[in-house]
Structure prediction request, 258 residues.
Amino acid sequence: MTETTKQLPPEITDLVLSDAVFYVSHSGGKDSQAMYSMMASLIPHDQIVVIHASLGDVEWPGVIEHINSTISHELNIVKAEKTFLGMVERRGKWPSAQHRQCTSDLKRGPIEKFIRQDMKRRGGGIAVNCMGLRAAESSARAKRQPFRKKDSQSVTGRAVWEWFPIFTLSTPDVFEMIARAGQKPFWAYQQNERLSCVFCIMGSRNDLRHGAEQNPELYRRYVELERRIGHTMFMKGKQPVWIDEYIGIPVQIIEEAV
Ligand code: SF4
Prediction:
């Protein structure tokens, strides 16, 4: 055991010593960045694999370049066969906080598939699926178990665990960890609270407004899609509200400004 692995929880140290492969799900957001910097300092380099589930043209442009500039591993990019907006159009409705098909179909699914295939290529072993979830993000997240065996993904010869390495960190802790690594978070955090899809179904008005200002063409596509399917991403009280009315930015104003 090295001095660094001694700083890990004992159950994680056991996995390191058992040659487990730690798959880091990296969205490009601040939590992923802090998680990676922590893991890179504690876990042997060749036991880390970094994966980004790309959301294509609905994620912030430049995110992949940002990840590559802050990691010292190869970045594996996975993508679902369907796209976010294609999925919405086909279903005729947007995902919701309760039914997040976007996360399960476009992020979790492709990452789990990558892990299965990579483990198969390695001839089996132990996989640890690492995510930057934090208890402070929501009461639902606070109830999650930060370390557990994933029986549904484990088969003879392949054991899969799930671990949230920065589960107990606060938001200031996360920014501090990034700064301590000598890095900066993605530029959009100068105004954004969260990152990932430019227009997230759970995004704050502030983030959505900033997204619209910086990505007018993508914003227009969201506004048009809402009208076409007759279903809105957001509600005002119990009433559905179009995204442009919700954030108070008419599409024409954005288009005139560019
Ligand atoms: S960022 Fe938001 S909209 Fe995009 S996949 Fe995640 S939950 Fe869904």
Observations:
- The beta strands are 21-25, 48-53, 75-78, 125-130, 147-149, 158-163, 234-236, 239-241.
- The CA atoms of residues 9 and 165 lie 10 Å apart.
